[in-house]
């Protein structure tokens, strides 16, 4: 027994150096400080080092979905002595606590590692991203949820911020404190702006490090930073909070001047202490003080001030919710013109014709020629002819070309440069094949399958690869099959302008809409509260004015059997879809039906929250359809393009001048 243990010990001792001799080293940091949200893009940064011979391989981040693997990959070239950081964007199912990362070389796994521990936060959690040299000084933010049920804080570095804008969607607030933002890349700045315009809130702090913190985001700020000064007291700040300071001055303040877009919320002798700027749906806040120093640190008024900032994060209204229903999402892209099944009448006519020819007509012809014994030959021939005709007819109804069908919901502000978009992308193939589907780099995607369960699925593809662009690699389709994906992006806002003004002593809103695109805005509506009014089609270059009576917002029960008649859904697009679809018979209309399914695809298990409805005295929303999808997609072969975009543009309501 002792000899056996000695042998095992010697074998283990001999094997230990071999395990340590692997020249390839991997480590991975996933999520925002380990935090992520269900069915939203998750950033993963992989560090790879090589102390051995040069390596050409593929990095793979593996997400387990129902026992299958969903692989997100990137090509990796590691020369001798290389140490690289590779950013990837992945999607994770609920309750994922870590992801596996592996380096595959020549089809074999050369190195593997696990990420940091992950924790799923709900959509009712306010997620702060904080970049600061002193994490303890801002940890109190997890006690300030704004209008949400809970709050969580992710402590980050500038390198953790993705260059892909859709990966920012889980963040609600980003705090830049005492950090050198000039290190941000052009891609990070572009993604940051798209995120703010879609509803994110950026807070940039001041104090001694204020000028350095502001340097890389100066074009977004509501102020122009000049320098740093010391003030003996800040009575404007204590008066705003209604509380005296815990510590006496002097206090270090970053000096600045408001820009044309900026608004001073708290000013001290002409110096902005707190300024803000609206940017699309989001806001940029400049706080001229360091929150880790006096007077804000530990002061009750400081916590109240952060509470005001957190309350300014706008929720998504019901009609802009994320796609949650995989069945409706699949139905929205499953309709392909020319691929419809034969009608009942056509089938009955074919069966009747078949029965007449193979029976009475065949018999009468053979009897006329007095060769009825040939029925042994003519009947099998007729069966073969009709079988061949049936096969060729069925083959032709499947179409001859690959079809890409993109149904998009694009939501944002009429004052934004970019919109937050989700596209249901369907790839239809008339025959069994594999395709590589190309998407823009600034997008992220995951597969789903039709059903009533979880949206995220493993799909029938080899991997989702991120290199110069995003490639859905090795998408497998059987004959007449549809492969479907959800793609998130931030496309440019179409050239549609609108303005809304309070009139009639604030009892009504006048909305003016102008279509500056080259396409017709179809079946346009204006949403205000639980009410809506139809605008109709708006031709290219056309302009129209609509008056909304704010006293007329009476919700009506939805006519759709999906909901009980006694329930009021706070979404006028669901209560009465006939206006946005242009018909009351949308179940039979070949154009309206997939659009109706796209609208329903946003409905999950919970009833939309009425508190998320914007006040119609402050914001109204223009809705309508544009032909095609803003998503640029390639299929590696000639493909027919189909699709439509549901455009939802929020229009801020301005104060009028009396009547």
What is the gist of this entry?
The protein is α+β, with helices and mostly antiparallel strands and 659 residues long.
Helices and strands in order:
Elements: H1 2-20, E1 24-30, E2 35-36, E3 42-50, E4 55-65, E5 68-78, E6 83-90, E7 100-105, E8 108-114, E9 119-120, E10 125-131, E11 150-156, E12 173-176, H2 186-197, E13 201-205, H3 210-215, E14 223-231, H4 235-241, E15 251-258, E16 263-268, E17 271-279, E18 282-287, H5 300-311, H6 326-334, H7 344-368, H8 375-397, E19 402-413, E20 420-429, E21 433-439, E22 443-448, E23 463-466, E24 470-477, E25 481-489, E26 496-503, E27 508-515, E28 521-528, E29 531-538, E30 543-549, H9 572-575, H10 578-581, H11 592-600, E31 619-627, E32 639-654
Parallel strand pairs: 2-9, 5-23, 10-11, 10-12, 12-13, 13-18, 19-32, 26-32
Antiparallel strand pairs: 1-3, 3-6, 4-5, 4-7, 7-8, 14-15, 16-17, 17-18, 19-20, 20-25, 21-24, 22-25, 23-24, 26-27, 27-30, 28-29, 28-31, 31-32
């Amino acid at each position: 027994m002792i000899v056996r243990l000695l042998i095992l010990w010697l074998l283990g001792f001999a094997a230990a150096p071999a395990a340590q001799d692997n020249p390839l080293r991997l480590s991975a940091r996933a999520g925002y400080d380990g935090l992520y949200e269900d069915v939203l893009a998750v950033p993963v940064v992989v560090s790879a080092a090589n102390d051995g011979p040069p390596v050409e391989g593929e990095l793979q981040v593996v997400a387990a979905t129902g026992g299958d693997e969903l692989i997100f990959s990137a090509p990796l070239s590691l020369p001798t002595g290389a140490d690289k950081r590779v950013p990837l964007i992945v999607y994770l199912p609920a309750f994922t606590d870590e992801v596996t990362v592996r380096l595959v070389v020549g089809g074999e796994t050369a190195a593997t590692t696990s990420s940091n521990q992950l924790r799923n936060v709900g959509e009712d959690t306010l997620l702060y991203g904080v970049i600061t040299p002193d994490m303890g000084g801002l940890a109190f933010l997890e006690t300030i949820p704004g209008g949400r049920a809970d709050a969580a804080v992710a402590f980050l570095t500038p390198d953790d911020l993705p260059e892909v804008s859709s990966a920012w969607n889980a963040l609600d607030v980003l705090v830049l404190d005492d950090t050198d933002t000039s290190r941000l890349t052009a891609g990070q700045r572009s993604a940051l702006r798209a995120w703010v315009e879609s509803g994110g809130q950026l807070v940039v702090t001041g104090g001694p490090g204020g000028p350095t913190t502001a340097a890389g985001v100066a074009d977004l700020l509501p102020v122009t930073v000049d320098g740093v000064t010391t003030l003996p007291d800040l009575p404007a700040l204590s008066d705003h909070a209604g509380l005296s300071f815990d510590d006496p001055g002097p206090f270090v303040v970053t000096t600045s001047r408001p820009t044309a877009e900026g608004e001073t919320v708290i000013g001290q002798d002409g110096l902005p202490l707190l300024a803000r700027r609206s940017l699309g749906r989001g806001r940029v806040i400049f706080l001229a003080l360091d929150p880790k120093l006096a007077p804000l640190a530990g002061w009750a008024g400081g916590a109240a001030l952060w509470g005001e900032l957190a309350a300014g994060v706008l929720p998504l209204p019901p009609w802009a919710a994320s796609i949650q229903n995989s069945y409706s999402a699949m139905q929205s892209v499953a309709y392909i013109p020319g691929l419809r099944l034969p009608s009942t009448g056509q089938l009955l006519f074919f069966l009747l014709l078949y029965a007449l020819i193979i029976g009475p007509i065949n018999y009468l012809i053979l009897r006329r020629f007095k060769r009825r014994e040939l029925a042994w030959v003519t009947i099998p021939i007729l069966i073969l002819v009709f079988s061949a005709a049936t096969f060729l007819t069925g083959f032709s109804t499947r179409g001859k070309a690959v079809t890409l069908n993109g149904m998009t919901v694009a939501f944002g502000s009429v004052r934004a440069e970019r919109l937050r978009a989700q596209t249901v992308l369907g790839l239809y193939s008339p025959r069994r094949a594999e395709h590589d589907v190309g998407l823009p780099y600034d997008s992220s995607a995951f597969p789903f399958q039709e059903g009533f369960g979880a949206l995220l699925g493993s799909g029938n593809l080899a991997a989702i690869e991120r290199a110069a662009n995003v490639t859905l690699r090795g998408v497998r389709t059987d004959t007449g099959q549809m492969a479907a994906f959800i793609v998130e992006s931030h496309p440019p806002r179409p050239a549609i302008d609108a303005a809304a003004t309070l009139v009639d002593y604030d009892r009504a809103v006048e909305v003016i809409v102008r279509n500056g695109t080259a396409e017709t805005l179809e079946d346009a509506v204006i949403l205000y509260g639980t009410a809506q009014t139809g605008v109709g089609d708006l031709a290219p270059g056309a302009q129209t004015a609509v008056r909304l009576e704010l006293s007329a917002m009476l919700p009506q029960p939805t006519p759709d059997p999906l909901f009980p008649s006694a329930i009021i859904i706070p979404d006028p697009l669901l209560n009465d879809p006939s206006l946005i679809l242009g018909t009351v018979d949308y179940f039979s209309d070949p154009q309206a039906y997939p659009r109706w399914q796209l609208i329903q695809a946003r409905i999950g298990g919970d009833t939309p929250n009425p508190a998320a409805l914007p006040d119609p005295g402050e914001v109204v929303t223009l809705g309508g359809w544009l032909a095609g999808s803003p998503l640029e997609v390639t299929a590696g072969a000639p493909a027919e393009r189909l699709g439509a975009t549901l455009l939802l543009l929020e229009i801020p309501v301005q104060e009028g001048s009396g009547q």
